[in-house]
């Protein structure tokens, strides 16, 4: 019995560890956690005053996507934005970012990004969205948000 235990125990431990790692990878792939980031820098202008206190989140395993959370809801509707550099989309997040994975805020990869801002009329003005080499800018008559990548 001791010989069998000594012989198969290391393989059993390796199998359990491999199963845990694969399960963790699948969980992160399906529901990537949002990690706070300082880069790119986020600025937003509301009522003529520029602020830098927005929180920027980057989903793990999604290097071209950003989530910008403003400290409070502005103009009754602007709280959180999503930006995807690869698809060149800026969107107003229409659902709460309240899901968690291992204690971190997370998103579901299958959830929609939000309401696309390009060509959208909100607050009696059109959103202008620009993806430049070093800056991402989206604004309307009420709010302007800028991400400085470099």
Please summarize the sheet with the most strands. Answer: 6 strands, antiparallel
| Total count of helical runs of at least 4 residues | 1
- List the helices and strands in order: HEEEEEEEEEEEEEEE
Radius of gyration, taken over Cα atoms and rounded to an integer in Å: 21 Å
* Number of strand elements: 15
Structurally, the number of domains stands at: 2
User: Going across the major beta sheet, what is the strand order?
Assistant: 1-4-5-6-7-10
Secondary-structure-derived class: alpha+beta
What is the overall silhouette? elongated
Percentage of β-strand residues = 35-45%
Q: Kindly report how far apart the N and C termini lie.
A: 63 Å
- In percent, how helical is the residue content? 10-25%
Mean pLDDT: 90
Low-confidence stretches: none
Description:
With 150 residues, the protein is an alpha+beta fold. The chain has two domains: 30 residues; 115 residues, no CATH class. 19% of the residues lie in helices and 44% in strands. It contains one helix and 15 strands. The strands form four sheets. It has a six-stranded antiparallel β-sheet with strand order 1-4-5-6-7-10, with no helix packed on it. Strands 3-2-15-14-13 form a five-stranded antiparallel β-sheet, with no helix packed on it. Strands 8-9 form a two-stranded antiparallel sheet. The protein is elongated and about 80 Å long. The termini are far apart.
Task: Give a brief outline of the structure.
The protein is α+β, with helices and mostly antiparallel strands and 150 residues long. The protein contains one helix and 15 strands.
